[in-house]
Amino acid sequence: MGKGLDPMQAEERNRIIIFDTTLRDGEQSPGVALSAEEKVEIAEQLARLGVDVIEAGFPISSPGDFEAVRAIAHRVKGPIIAGLSRANPRDVERAGEALEPAARRRIHTFIATSEIHMKYKLRMEPDAVVAAAVEAVRRARRYTDDVEFSAEDATRSNLDFLARILSAAVEAGATTINVPDTVGYTTPQEFHRLITFLRQRVVGADRVKFSVHCHNDLGLAVANSLAAIEAGAVQVETTINGIGERAGNTSMEEVVMAMRTRRDYYHGWETGIATEHFYRTSRLVSSLTGMAVQANKAVVGANAFAHQAGIHQDGVLKEPLTYEIMRPQDVGVPKSLLVMGKLSGRHAFRERLKELGYEMTDEELQKAFARFKELADRKKDGVTDRDLEAIVEAERQLPAEIFGLDSFHVTSGTSTPPTATICLQVQGQRYQEAAWGTGPVDALYRAIDRITSLQCRLEDYSLKAVTSGQDALGEVTVRVAARRGEEGEVAMLGRGVSTDIIEASVKAYLAAVNKLCLTTGSHPMPPEALRVKEAVSQ
Predict the structure, then answer these.
(1) Which tens digit of pLDDT belongs to each residue from 133-147?
(2) Residue range 245-265, pLDDT digits in tens
(3) 172 vs 96, 114, 140, 517, CA distance in Å?
(4) With respect to CATH, is domain 12-289 assigned 3.20.20.70?
(5) In the chain, where the domains are located
(6) Dist. CA 171–CA 175, nearest whole Å
(7) Per-residue pLDDT for 309 more than 70?
(8) What pTM does this model have?
(9) Among 27, 431, 72, which residue's Cα sits nearest to residue 243?
(10) 403-537, superfamily in CATH?
């Protein structure tokens, strides 16, 4: 530790495998619920990014997750598609069935190995745990030659037992051995010693690839992953933006850019990642999951390449390397801010979007340009790149529209009960309702519910400013739940952007309601008595 890996040793294994688990461990973040189509969209972007392995989900966990994994296996080409399974027969079989369409597939099976997990969670004796691991690996080999075995909570496991169960997994046919720091407990030097120990003690270690999966409970996930690579691990399990259970996982963009930026220390270790896609991928994952990226997040945060202090600004203007150890273009962040206004034309709009990494069809461009013009008329200080990103992302996330916004009116005050009237477009017809609530947004949501006839429950509501200033673009994200037959409740995220936060709130709620209708397969129609004649709009 401290001097990097010996150059000769590094030369033998300088290609690091990037395993992405955004769609599995990342989706286990509290409050995240992705539809199958959203998962496919993220998976396709991960393929463009160049990840080696996409862990598409946990097929046994729900019918929806099974279908999402199967859709990704069928539609996403290039990366290995992996499915997670516990070490039991039905889990493994379900994973094998979901992955069947994939040209390159991997079953990732796991069982806990720490004393605390075996005693209190599994309630199994060590010998039984080893037997279950062996059986799971053997069963997985019936579906694919590519089998990964993980020893859950490895960093709190007895070392001799850990070496024993990993040796048994290798003997049973595992081709990748994963050592997870499941609860983010270890430290870099300690983890380096553990990987070194296992590579020496596991029987057949020379026949398998060693992998690591680190959680960030103590803020050490990236540091621990890099230490493990120094010790001989060749696969790192990561997520975009570092999302995941509790404090999250190893951030892909951070660990990859650390190796790239510090080639002098890491002796030229390479990945297959097209790093210029990082920013675009980060924004996509943030938008679809509803998890905002903190401004000071390394590599992809809004402030990662921003300079406010006069000394810093002066230095960067003279030579960017004075305060920037990476070029913003290397991760897909535009170097300069192009401010666009209401006099900008369609050609300039299209070219700026291309520079930001967006390729759009003529129809998508037309819709986005109309929203841009509407926003430019409202904003006094011009439209920024972040405004443009918000416009495009909001446009692309709109589901097939069942209920469309026509108009709304709200009345509210300290001595006036908040009331709202809203008119929606439904299959070419217009429907109108009114309601009162605890506030203008609540009143509007109640009025929408009356038209849609859906019994929705608002689980979460968040509002943030996309840009700065009094005319800032506001972004509202809501999580709305509704019942779906015998399966119970299903929840969907909706997102809306506008300079008017009430309008953004309405757009977000309607986006979620439309998703719910498409997911549940029900298209409720409002009562005929509520129809507003077409003549009203004339």
Answers:
(1) 999 999 999 999 999
(2) 999 999 999 999 999 999 999
(3) 17, 21, 10, 46
(4) yes
(5) 12-289, 310-397, 403-537
(6) 10
(7) no
(8) 0.74
(9) 27
(10) Alpha-isopropylmalate synthase LeuA, regulatory domain (3.30.160.270)
